[in-house]
Amino acid sequence: MEMISKYGTDRENHTSFDGAAWCVASGGVTKGREYGTPRMPKSIVSTSSSSHSYSVESSYPSSSYRALQKEIKDKEEEIKKKDDFILEMKRQMDSMKEYLVNNLGYHGGTSNIDQDSQSFIGINYGQLEDNLPPPPSTAKLLQSTSIQKVRLYGSDPAIIKALANTGIGIVIGTANGDIPGLASDPNFAKTWINTNVLPFYPASNIILITVGNEVMTSNDQNLMNKLLPAMQNVQNALNDASLGGKIKVTTVHSMGVLKQSEPPSSGSFDPSYGDLMKGLLEFNSATGSPFAINPYPYFAYRSDTRPETLAFCLFQPNAGRMDGNTKIKYMNMFDAQVDAVYSALNSMGFKNVEIVVAETGWPFKRDDNDVGPSIENAKAYNGNLIAHLRSMVGTPLMPGKSVDTFLFALYDGDSKPGPGSERSFGLFKTDLTMVYDAGLSTSSQTRSLAAASQPLIAAATNTSNNNSSMSMSTSTCNCTCNCTSIISISSGSNKVYLIRIFNLDLLYGFVGLSLICLFFYDLQT
What we know:
Layout: H1 2-7, H2 19-25, E1 34-35, E2 43-48, E3 53-57, H3 62-103, H4 105-108, E4 121-125, H5 135-143, E5 149-152, H6 157-162, E6 169-174, H7 179-184, H8 186-196, E7 206-213, H9 221-240, E8 248-254, E9 258-260, E10 268-269, H10 274-287, E11 291-294, H11 297-302, H12 307-313, E12 321-323, E13 328-330, H13 333-347, E14 355-360, H14 375-391, E15 394-395, E16 398-399, E17 405-407, H15 442-452, E18 460-462, E19 470-476, E20 484-491, E21 494-499, H16 504-524
Parallel strand pairs: 4-5, 4-17, 5-6, 6-7, 7-8, 8-11, 11-14, 14-17
Antiparallel strand pairs: 1-2, 2-3, 9-10, 12-13, 15-16, 18-21, 19-20, 20-21
């Protein structure tokens, strides 16, 4: 009773009060762990960190206990409000980030990646066009762009030699017709390497050999069965030449190898390929070679020509598509298709196999009955895809990195069979001028970087709008690049104009720092 007489009825607020001693002096029983806090010194407190809930057992008089309960409840409500605020802040920032990546246009959406080291941007160099420029001229054209890799469908020695000492990574390929010989005769594979690789490497930076193209969906069972043995013999020939760790071997697949691709988390391979696909994936995994795939949002749009699908395919503003399994909202078809492939690899136990986009593009010219091809759509798809890759955002299931992507194509394919759109994927004409500016040339990049170096000009003005939600609007600059240059962001009573938005990495860093500050503020309070 000495403790009671010493501290009286205001004992719980006394700075030197010892709660444990009080409990003993007053006959209280303690259970569980003891925690000391300024307001609850050595009381019995159990916590749940996930819900910020507390329960207290003590022998305090009931009035003090009720007051303590009220204080805890008030604190819980305050914490909940802060948590809700932080979650909403994160949601708004994620929304802003996605908007900037997809809608600044391909000139305003650059990151601070060195424009000369964008190794994830490649292009397909086909030879079905009439009057192709000489290979040395094409090599100079490529050097004037940010393209760092070139995929050949064959192994033309003139082109391989023209690309020597440029630093451009070269993908060469064997024809589908070579597969039976490569599979059955290891010496044929050695001869192929001796002819198409050794005379040029390493001056010509050959990085990958593709054995066949879309063999698994060719319906040619003989080729399908011989594909893996052909790849193995080519790999063995490289090993014998001491190039096994320097040049990889793979094959290229169409999206038709997937049985299911929607939603992306349910992506799976067609079970009819069974052990054949498993063997190919085991080869990729064992040799460190990539799984090469040809995703074309253009063909997805052709099967669903609604305006919202077009926007989804072109990286333009849209409502997004929710993956019901992961609760991830996809904002473009490219990410959805690539993540479907990732999910398919994961379902087979090969999630660590790298994905390479061997072909993707959009045609700019159409026949009368075609839907989708146009200069505007082709420019939007390729330009916004390039901006998306440069942002290094990645895909929802593979964030923070850009998948190596080979655009289709460098030139048109006038000699290619099929509809007019099949011959109109080229980004450059044979006179070496651009069909349209997708932001690949150094002059385009110079405009981008000049704009990116401008400081952020932000002006906040009071408005009568008291709505707390965030809205955005865009306008277009008057320069020839036709890029999105001004974004108006309205939030609450303020309107902020972000003019010619700068460097996305700078924005992301600012957002991250803001969230960290909010987190520590929450801890302090």
